[in-house]
């Protein structure tokens, strides 16, 4: 390129320089943002993962000590990674399956479609803290309406957010309640499936399941993949609902001098992002917090590259 | 709301009774399922509302229907010290944040969609990586930066200032939309002697209005809902708390009062839901844009 442009006539060369300046001007807000809020802190995080630093005394180099501490001595690392992977596997799968089901249902509704679509979508809009508070109340084992109703029906009444066996399923239920975004995406994809393919399948005598299996699903596979991968990336960042549910269910809420150790009950809702918070901002062990942050980054980027490979279309020309 | 099309009606009239019965059964099955699903999605709101108007005592029982309707609970929440400040802070964060993000992201998205330059694909990859980055990965150096270099923690500034430097998700969505605007429009404007800025402001922006409305709404909701940012940067000063952060400590202050807590919860949900009813179309278009186009 450089060789080429120097052999151009001066008028064109000036034009090219002007174009480059213009591009830079348009990109400048983001270029600054990229440097200050992405590149710089990312490099610093890696740097701090090799330093001993409590936020006050100057940092000192400790080599791989923090890494060794987090991976082999810190008692909660593997539990947090396990919980994160549990949520990725179960929450994402159920959310996508349920979102697809609700999407299919809404395309079949003939009467009151507008009402149903709005009803299915609304919970997605509820602010996560408010939604979690509402669920902590609804699923409250003693007085919550859900266990009340389960009792009336003669069904078992789980401890939900207070029982380590039920806390992650309770969070999953909350995530499924907010499935409206996936419903809209699936609905749009389902409406794009060519009608003729269904007609052809019907002529061949396909039943509803066969039509779904051989016509609907192949047509929406890219959207299902998109939903899975973005779901995985979101779940890697899962934070607010887990920490708020733990705080409300345990009754320990900041402000009264008690410090809430995330993960209640018994570390069952403890995830990688909360580990960064707890190590860095509650224990002032900046180095170890950065080790977890680097691991979180590596995992997220691995999933992102999967998304990029799948959706190479992102980079295409118009 | 009958949405049965003319041909469907005609087919129904002439179809054999067996087929008609099957269609009816199908209708009943679909709509029963829809009602069941609607109960799952709406009942939580109903229970939260019913509890929010109960008396303190009744909210501690498992009864579902209020004995007496205490609308005063809402007034009491409203008068709770701090509640108004949290509203003001949240509006400031969400309002200013949205404005700054849109103004700074539009030119970036335009350049990525319509300019040809070396490193464009690289820049786009960088935008996508930034979009996927969990905020916890960079939070420690960022906190140190705001706390030690700029001494701004305990205020809303660490939340608002970054918005002036473009937001990856907004840039990405806007670019996806701008790609769908035929380049003939842009070229025609250029031939007519418009500078790039004029082309963007006069030709492209009016066409991109729905996409801009969608990303502005997304950004507003993002700020309104943000919990991690306020917890890290502004929680040390009660005067800088936002609704998300304050709501949780509200439960702490009103330890056993589920009625007041649920009233506060509904008050935090309400603006988002009201805004949705006003801007439903923009919002749904935005969600579709994330998933389908691209």
Automatic annotation (TrEMBL), chain A:
Query: Any idea where the ABC transmembrane type-1 domain is?
Result: 81-307
Top-level taxon of origin: Bacteria
User: SUPFAM superfamilies, per this entry?
Assistant: MetI-like
Q: Where are the transmembrane segments?
A: 21-43, 85-107, 119-139, 170-191, 212-233, 286-308
InterPro entries noted in UniProt: ABC_transporter_permease, MetI-like, MetI-like_sf
The record's subcellular locations are: Cell membrane
What family is it from? Belongs to the binding-protein-dependent transport system permease family.
Q: What is this protein called?
A: Sugar ABC transporter permease
TrEMBL record, chain B:
Question: Which residue windows are transmembrane per the record?
Answer: 24-50, 91-113, 122-144, 156-178, 199-222, 258-279
The UniProt entry lists membrane topology as: Multi-pass membrane protein
Source superkingdom:
Bacteria
InterPro entries attached to this UniProt entry: MetI-like, MetI-like_sf
Localization of this protein: Cell membrane
Q: Would the keyword Membrane be found if you checked this record's keyword annotation? A: yes
Q: Recite the UniProt keywords alphabetically.
A: Cell membrane, Membrane, Transmembrane, Transmembrane helix, Transport
Entry keyword Transport: yes
Boundaries of each ABC transmembrane type-1 domain copy? 87-279
Q: Which CDD domains match?
A: TM_PBP2
Q: Which family does it belong to?
A: Belongs to the binding-protein-dependent transport system permease family.
Q: What is this protein's record name?
A: Carbohydrate ABC transporter permease
């Amino acid at each position: 390129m450089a060789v080429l442009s120097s052999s151009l006539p001066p008028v064109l060369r000036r034009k090219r320089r002007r174009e480059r300046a213009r591009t830079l001007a348009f990109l400048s807000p983001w270029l600054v943002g990229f440097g200050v809020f992405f590149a710089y802190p990312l490099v610093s995080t890696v740097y701090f993962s090799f330093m001993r630093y409590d936020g006050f005394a100057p940092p000192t180099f400790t080599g791989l000590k923090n890494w060794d501490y987090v991976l082999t001595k810190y008692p909660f690392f593997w539990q947090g990674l396990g919980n994160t992977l549990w949520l990725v596997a179960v929450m994402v799968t159920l959310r996508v399956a349920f979102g697809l089901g609700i999407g299919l249902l809404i395309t079949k509704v003939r009467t009151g479609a507008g009402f149903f679509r709005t009803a299915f979508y609304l919970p997605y809009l509820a602010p996560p803290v408010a939604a979690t508070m509402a669920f902590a109340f609804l699923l409250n084992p003693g007085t919550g309406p859900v266990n009340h109703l389960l009792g009336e029906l003669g069904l078992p009444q789980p401890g939900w957010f207070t029982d380590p066996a039920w806390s992650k399923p309770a969070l999953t239920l909350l995530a499924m309640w907010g499935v409206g975004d996936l419903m809209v995406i699936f609905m749009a994809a389902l409406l794009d499936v060519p009608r003729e393919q269904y007609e052809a399948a019907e002529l061949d005598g396909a039943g509803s399941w066969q039509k779904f299996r051989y016509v609907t699903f192949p047509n929406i596979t890219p959207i299902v993949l998109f939903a899975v991968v973005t779901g995985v990336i979101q779940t890697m960042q899962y934070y607010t609902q887990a920490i708020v549910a733990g705080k409300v269910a345990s009754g320990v809420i900041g402000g009264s001098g008690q410090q809430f150790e995330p993960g209640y009950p018994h570390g069952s809702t403890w995830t990688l992002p909360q580990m960064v918070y707890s190590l860095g901002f509650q224990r002032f062990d900046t180095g170890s917090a950065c080790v977890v942050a680097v691991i979180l980054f590596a995992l997220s980027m691995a999933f992102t590259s999967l998304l990029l490979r799948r959706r190479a279309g992102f980079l295409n020309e118009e | 709301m009958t949405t049965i099309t003319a041909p469907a009606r005609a087919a129904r009239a002439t179809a054999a009774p067996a087929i008609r019965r099957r269609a009816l059964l199908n209708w009943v099955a679909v709509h029963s399922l829809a009602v069941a699903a609607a109960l799952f999605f709406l009942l939580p709101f109903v229970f939260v509302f019913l509890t929010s108007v109960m008396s303190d005592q009744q909210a501690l029982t498992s009864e579902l229907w209020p004995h007496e309707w205490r609308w005063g609970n809402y007034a009491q929440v409203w008068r709770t010290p701090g509640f108004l400040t949290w509203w003001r802070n949240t509006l400031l964060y969400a309002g200013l944040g949205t404005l700054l993000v849109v103004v700074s992201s539009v030119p970036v998205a335009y350049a990525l969609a319509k300019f040809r330059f070396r490193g464009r694909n690289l820049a786009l990859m960088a935008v996508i990586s930034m979009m996927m980055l969990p905020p916890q990965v960079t939070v420690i150096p960022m906190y140190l930066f705001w706390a030690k270099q700029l001494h701004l923690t305990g205020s809303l500034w660490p939340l608002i200032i970054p918005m002036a430097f473009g937001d990856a998700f907004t840039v990405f969505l806007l670019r996806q939309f701008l790609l769908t605007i035929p380049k003939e429009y842009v070229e025609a404007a250029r031939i007519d002697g418009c500078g790039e800025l004029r082309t963007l402001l006069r030709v492209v922006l009016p066409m991109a209005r729905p996409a801009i409305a969608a990303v502005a709404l997304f950004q507003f909701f993002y700020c309104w809902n943000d919990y991690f940012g306020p917890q890290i940067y502004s929680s040390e000063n009660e005067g800088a708390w936002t609704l998300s952060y304050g709501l949780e400590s509200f439960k702490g202050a009103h330890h056993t009062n589920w009625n007041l807590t649920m009233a506060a919860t509904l008050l935090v949900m309400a603006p988002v839901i009201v805004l949705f009813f006003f801007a439903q179309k923009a919002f749904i278009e935005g969600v579709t844009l994330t998933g389908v186009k691209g």
